[in-house]
Amino acid sequence: MEKLSSDDSNRNVHGLSHGGKILLFTCKRDPAVSVRERSGLTFRSFYFEREGNAFLNATEGATVISRKPSAHVDIVTCKCAVDVQKRVKTAFVLVTKMSEKGSSFKYSLLALRSSHRLEPCIEFKLPYQMKGKVSILQGPTVMWSHDNSVSYTSPEAEGVRKIPIQMSKCLFGELPIQKGQLFALGLSEPLLANHSPTLGYLCEGGQAFDGSLVLPHPYICITQCMRVLTADRVDDVLRCTVVAATSNQQLVLFENGTVKDTCEVPFGQAEDIQMADTGRNGCLFVVSFNQGHVCAVWKETFQMASCWSDVDSAHVDDFLGCGTEQILLIFRNNGISSGPLEKFIITDLCGISYSVRLLQLLQAILIKLPVMDNTVSNKTPPKKTCFSVVKALKHRRQAYLLRKTHSSLFSDEESNDETPDDKLHETPALSSRPKIDKLWHRITEDCVAFSGLSLLTEPGQNSTPAVIQTRSQVFWLPARGPSTPTLSSPSPGFAFSEPAAKRSRQHIASDDFSAGRLAVTAVTKLAPLLTSGCVKCRAMLHYAEKAEAPLLQNPQIKTDEVREDLLSLLTVLDNWVLRIDSPDYSLGDIDGWIKRREGFKKIDVSPEYLLLDSPGSSAPMLLRWHQINPFQGDLSIHSSQLQMLQFLDSMLSYLPDSCFIQPVKRARSQSTAQKLACALEKERKERRAGHGETPDSGSAEDLVRCCREAWQQNVEKSRLRLNPVVDAGRYREMVQSISQVKMDSDLAQLNKLK
Amino acid sequence: MIQSASLLESWTQENNQLASGCKLSPHVFLLLCLSLSGIPPHLDRAQLELSVVYNTCVCFTAQSQFDEAELLLTQTAQRLLQIAGDDPGTSDPSVLWRTALKSVTGTALHRRVLSLLCLQWGVWLAKSRLTAVQDFQEMSLLEAQSGAVWNDCRAETKEKISNIPILVLDPRRLVDLLKICTAIVQGAERLTEGWSVLSALQAASASPAPRALIAYTHLLSGSCLAHMNRPQMALQCYRKALETDPRCVCALYQSALIYSRLENSQAEIQALRILHSMLLLPSTTEPAMAAGRLLSPSLFLCSQSLSSLLSVPSALSVLHSLALKCVIHSRVSEGVECYLDLLAALQSEDQHGVRVHAVVSTLPKLPRLYLEAGAALLMARRPADCMALCDEVIGSTLDLLPEKVLLEDPVARRVAGSGEVTEEAENGLVRLLWTAAAYLLQGHCYSQLKDWKQAVTHYTRCINLLVKVHYKDTDKDPEQGVDLCVLQRLKGLSLAGRGISFAQIDRLREALRDLQLSRQAHPEGVSARRWYGEVLWRLDRKQEAAACWEQTWSNPIPSLSEALPVYAQELQSGPLLDSAELHQKLQELGPT
């Protein structure tokens, strides 16, 4: 800002504004006294005259810097700063004298005391030349950075002082606290483990602070110049607003170390930020850049107001004497120059504008930022209806449990009616016995699943079924082709080659179901079975041997055993059928999505089912996706409730936002099967009502029943033992009445005292 | 990094606040975006920065500010490369992105970079830079990786909700949308390519997408099949499109066109009828797709061939073609109703001063509509209504009729190139033909009412108008061909009508003369020939009459065609000669 016409090495002109005037300092070797080669500093001050629309010379003066003939004198910088001792704002100029040998550099700070007298203020010597940034701050203090450190000097400091912290990327400035605080900022070096990488240092107090309170860490490296607008100490914590120009062509406003606003400026390499108070119209930041660009940004809106190019220097002062500040832009004088203040603009961008040679100043570009409009509104996508789904599922689950406990008293005949010996010999079906083509069982967790194929129950057969609560289900098996090669031969009953007449006799209501085969499955808790007698224990040992079902090991196998596994799983696992309906967004490839998920495998026996049996999860999971149309489909989940919820949760992220998920009644084909299962159960109950009440002493069922009753009683007893002696409700009532009595007596006491 | 982390946190919070706010616009995010891009790129902030850029670009795209979005995307790619320390040395976006994607492979940023790349894809698609889109698809990284990577997205969000920047649009939805839009646009551009396009469209129809877009894939499959000369399969596809999205009226229109090509007039009329009633529903006129969604699919569907395929004529145009089809395919009473509806709609439109049908150009001029309606009324035996309509036409055009229309030799006209004069002449001719046709129809009306004198008067007026046109019948210019043909037809029909009327009032000489002239003007006229025979018979020139009749058996009165205005064709409205009677007469003559 202070450099004027640097191209002319002889006439090194620096300018500053002070008290509404422009001061120009020139360092020149006077041609008149060239014999003695005196080096001197001249200064001129100019004021603006509105009528003439020009700057007029007010005063002039000169001082001798060095009398040595060969000394090279140069102006480093000039600036207005507060002189703390005199309490006035004074213009200072820093000049350098290089010694003849060039080994040491002598610097002196001169103060313009009156309008025409330059007085030396500080003098110091450095073993190097100041090359980085140099500032004249209040005090006056000269502050500069050199070789990763910041040094300063002032009349009070007595010599050159160096900030005792090693920093890289130094920045420095002053905080506008009542007593000016000079500070330096930088990246601490070396980086400390649990410290902020940004370090600040207050020169006067000599204390370090967290630099990120001024500038956040990432900005230190890219900030080219900064200006602290306000600073305050609240509870010993620094709070400040800072504006900084970065190398990424931005002007950034920080408040207490966070980014408040950002403005893009068209140039990089900022050199100085000044602030102009234009009065009612607010404040402007005037940012000067290298290569003569200047940019003005409104402080309030933080938007660019204007920018100029080919500017030699920019100054802010009340040049017109009207009470508010204006920007003075002095443009470069490329042609034959008669004076340094030939081409200029004085403006506050609000009405005041004075300029010379307007036509030649067309290169002063005016860029206006587009007005941003935020009129268009867009609604956020609707929240997922996850919660309602969970609720619906819960409801369904409860209903299911109710049904389970109330309805099914279907006993598994084979486990009770037959002795284990009978079972081992597995005789071919007799006409007087229930017709079962095949019987199998699986144990999962604490449940055992039984299943019989082509189960026949004829009234009056056998004796009462035992009281074991089971869940029973009936599944339709698809009608199978003659015989697949994988089919094992020793299961003749399983093959679909029986004569039709025989089969029709076997099924109840077989007219309806003759087309397909039927599998009736039942599942029950293991515990009652275990307690129902030693006979069963032997069977249990037998079950234990076949813990792992082949299906879970390899779903690709196509054997009857695997088929049985599948049916058992379907019986054991809880089942939910969900209708997924997405009216305006097609569902896409749900099946493919499930298959892509980890661990899901297709079951070759029944390809519509997908099996998840990852080692991590506790129980296997079966899924079936039935797409009705691109926008609708049914998902059957056979798993534990938790697994189902987990799966649904992940599925929701895949499904479109607008979809609905509802539990549905079973599909029609299954509901027929359900009816059959109910019929079976009902029949069992009736038979039990008919026969069960009269115990046949000595029979196996009776034994089982007795054992179970005993066990039930035991369970009941233990439950009672665990229960508290007094019912909680009663206890609460008692305590309440006691306290009431107490309160009444207290009140009576009080009344008495009165 | 205590302080730096908090800066990151505050920015993340700001992003999340903005993203979950109800007012989404690019400028809301732009400031944050500026802040983030104002500092050197760093891996720690990359996740946030990419998310903010994503949000900003989604908003830009939503407001069709594609250039801004693209600029931001390119800058971001460059910053990504700065992190990686890569410099491809080019600003070609596809190279940039390829390098950027490679540099983040296997890191957490990969997913974010992919979603930005998708936005770039969207911009290319919106700007119809289909080759770039194709290049992108050939990168094919997306297909393989997107599914797997994005599946984990949700799990991650659950872990640390506060630290994850919220996105305004699920990137998977964006991919879904872009995939199907690309398939649709590419399909529309390459409809003629056959099976390859068809299979791509079929695949797209199974992908997750808004209903309307699924319907478009079926529609395009249909059009593709129609190009492949498989109209029945095309119809199936159109039906599927309609089933998928009932608002996809263009499918109905395309079906109507196919039916018309298959000459299945009944189905065509049905399709047009449904189309018209659907167009009258308020909801169908605007594509109500993606309401409430951030990105409308229409942003990406800006292909010329697609929009021509999706365009549907206005309700009134559809009503007109429906009316015309009905009349031509002998469903006269329905046609009359349609015409009356059409005229009523036009009239109410005029009264309200609103031209609702901006695409009115497909609709014929009003007098022609009146005349067509009149012809339909005449065919429906409502001569009084027909006459009223004709009066309207005559009233509006009679004052503007030229004294004489001279049509120049077309060759000479082309050489001279004097556009104005001929245009005026043409306009004059058109008006003259309208008025003449109105008189002709009135003549027909009177003859239907058996008011032969009035009929003769109106036929005469028609003839008097028609003889004002002078032209050289050297060769038929295709441009003027229709007008001249109509002129000849009108001459023939009016002379025939007058001849028949004369015959009815036993002025056989005049009748014979007119019918003879009619046969000269319009040799194909069947009723003129039959009546010529009849008049000859009555004049006791039986042999000649028989010869004349013999000729007419071979060609019955032709059914109406769409090539000419209905009123310039034989309407079978006048007195008919019983062909059985004619046969009998011939047989009587035979033995003698």
SSE inventory with pairings:
The complex is a heterodimer of chains A (754) and B (592).
Chain A: E1 3-4, E2 12-18, E3 21-29, E4 39-49, E5 54-66, E6 72-83, E7 88-98, E8 105-114, E9 117-126, E10 134-137, E11 141-145, E12 150-153, E13 161-162, E14 167-175, E15 181-188, E16 198-202, E17 207-210, H1 217-220, E18 223-234, E19 237-246, E20 250-255, E21 258-264, E22 270-277, E23 283-289, E24 294-298, E25 304-308, E26 311-317, E27 326-331, E28 344-347, E29 353-355, H2 386-407, H3 413-417, H4 420-425, E30 438-444, E31 447-453, E32 470-477, H5 500-506, H6 510-513, E33 517-525, H7 526-531, H8 534-545, H9 550-553, H10 560-572, E34 574-581, H11 590-596, E35 600-602, E36 609-612, E37 621-629, E38 632-639, H12 641-654, E39 660-663, H13 668-692, H14 700-722, H15 728-753
Antiparallel strand pairs in A: 1-2, 2-3, 3-4, 4-5, 6-7, 7-8, 8-9, 10-11, 11-12, 12-13, 14-15, 15-16, 16-17, 18-19, 19-20, 20-21, 22-23, 23-24, 24-25, 26-27, 27-28, 28-29, 30-31, 31-33, 32-33, 34-38, 34-39, 35-36, 36-37, 37-38
Chain B: H1 2-20, H2 26-37, H3 43-62, H4 66-84, H5 93-103, H6 109-126, H7 130-139, H8 141-151, H9 153-159, H10 171-189, H11 195-205, H12 211-227, H13 231-244, H14 249-261, H15 265-280, H16 282-285, H17 304-310, H18 315-328, H19 332-352, H20 366-379, H21 383-397, E1 405-407, H22 410-416, H23 419-448, H24 452-466, E2 469-471, H25 478-504, H26 508-521, H27 526-538, H28 542-554, H29 579-589
Parallel strand pairs in B: 1-2
Helix pairs in contact in B: 1-3, 2-3, 3-4, 3-6, 4-5, 4-6, 6-10, 10-11, 10-12, 10-17, 11-12, 12-13, 12-14, 13-14, 14-15, 15-18, 18-19, 19-20, 20-21, 20-23, 21-23, 23-24, 23-25, 24-25, 25-26, 25-27, 26-27, 27-28
